[in-house]
Write a structure and sequence with these properties.
Layout lengths: L32 H7 L19 H17 L7 H17 L3 H13 L8
Helix pairs in contact: 3-4
This protein binds flavin-adenine dinucleotide.
Flavin-adenine dinucleotide binds next to helix 2 and helix 4.
Length: 123
Amino acid sequence: MSEENQTKPAVGASGRKIIYDKDGKPCRSCNTLLDFQMATGKVPAPVTKDKYREDPPDVERLGNSSWTFIHSLCSKYPEKPSTQDKAEINGFFNVLSRMYPCTWCADDFKKYLKDHPLDNSRQ
Ligand SMILES: Cc1cc2nc3c(=O)[nH]c(=O)nc-3n(C[C@H](O)[C@H](O)[C@H](O)COP(=O)(O)OP(=O)(O)OC[C@H]3O[C@@H](n4cnc5c(N)ncnc54)[C@H](O)[C@@H]3O)c2cc1C
């Protein structure tokens, strides 16, 4: 059966909603690897997954790593930031919300930042 004729699963093996790109194909970096494999009709590897060998990282690994980085970055943000610090942290979050390599997450994050503007006045 061709890929077009298959019913697209709405929910993956992880219980998460399957995210499809605008071209209708499952988004590789917006889904977990297991869900992506399921949605593309590939048999998932029955072994325990080696999370350090997934390439590109799936939504969970990307999220874990990104949150670790974001929290570390924010913990080093000065108590009394300079004008340059403020501009640079704004720039960083603007770029992150535009270029985060999970398109669905990036859109969500953009909306979040619009509704909750960054407070760059202190750590
Ligand atoms: C910018 C961004 C946008 C995302 N958007 C989406 C999305 O739209 N949909 C989606 O399904 N997933 C999204 N993710 C991924 C999601 O947030 C989780 O990272 C992912 O689902 C893995 O979940 P987890 O339970 O392992 O939690 P983790 O990735 O470990 O973290 C989840 C939560 O724990 C908090 N946390 C993590 N580390 C620390 C720390 N060191 N100190 C304090 N708090 C911490 C984070 O603030 C976060 O709220 C996004 C991630 C990022 C970075």
